Amino acid sequence: MSLVQRAIGTLIHRTYTAIRRAGAISTASPAGYRFRHLGEGATIAFPPGAIFGEAWIEIGDHTLIGERVSISCGMNPDLDLGPDSILRIGRACSIGRGSHIVAHQSIDIGDDVFTGPYVYITDQNHVYDDPDVPIGRQWPRNSPVSIGSGSWLGAGAIILPGTTLGRQCVVAGGAVVRGEFPDHSVVAGVPARRVRGYSPKLGWHTPLPVDAAP
Predict the structure, then answer these.
(1) Distance between CA 25 and CA 62 in Å, rounded?
(2) Class level of CATH domain 3-212
(3) For the purposes of burial, counting CB atoms within 10 Å of the CB of 13, is it exposed (0-12), middle (13-18) or buried (19 or more)?
(4) Residue 194: CB partners within 8 Å, gap ≥ 6?
(5) Angle 91-93-97 (CA atoms, 0-180°, nearest 5)?
(6) What residues does each domain of the chain span?
(7) Could you give the C-alpha distances from 116 to 15, 79, 121, 172, in angstroms and in order?
(8) C-alpha–C-alpha distance, residues 65 and 49, integer Å
(9) pTM, to two decimals
């Protein structure tokens, strides 16, 4: 590689690094003021994904939202979604690049929640009640989602409406999760089920199937 090529490469990398720093959204940037709350030290990396409904989004201190992460409230921008926040992400979380968090009614993500890349979390799903109407034209159905503090969601996991994950839960990569899971659950599969649990008496253990429980 010639000196000229090296110089050009160095310039490109330095320029892109400067662009990423300047384009990141934080409390110091004008875009940060649009959020209901954007905590101290919180950052949304550049380039971001689709972001709208900021007035109904709360993000805690020192949370990092990765590149190309979409976070939104409502069907489209400029809707009035009422007086209360809809999407709440706690402090010291890390949301992996390319993930989508789409809120319409209520999504709560606790503190210290980490996700891999390309995780999808939503509180709204399409319905197919009327067999004569295209599914995309039927009014969707909402159900709140809650993800407990200290949890880890593996790459490509999908969290569907109506899901409640307790504290310190693990969701395996690619799992499709719906339902309620207690603290310290390991959840895996399509559809996801609880494959490990923890109790002070048994430690980490494989839970009995529901139909085999005494």
Answers:
(1) 12
(2) mainly beta
(3) exposed
(4) 181, 185, 186, 187, 207
(5) 145
(6) 3-212
(7) 27, 30, 12, 10
(8) 10
(9) 0.91
Would you please indicate which residues are annotated as catalytic (active-site) residues? 126
139 token code pair: 């009014």
Closest C-alpha to 67, from 46, 92, 95: 46
Q: Per-residue pLDDT for the chain (214 aa), expressed as one digit of tens each?
A: 788 788 788 888 888 788 888 889 999 888 899 999 999 999 999 999 999 999 999 999 999 999 999 999 998 888 889 999 999 999 999 999 999 999 999 999 999 999 999 999 999 999 999 999 999 999 999 999 999 999 999 999 999 999 999 999 999 999 999 999 999 999 999 999 999 999 999 899 998 765 444 4
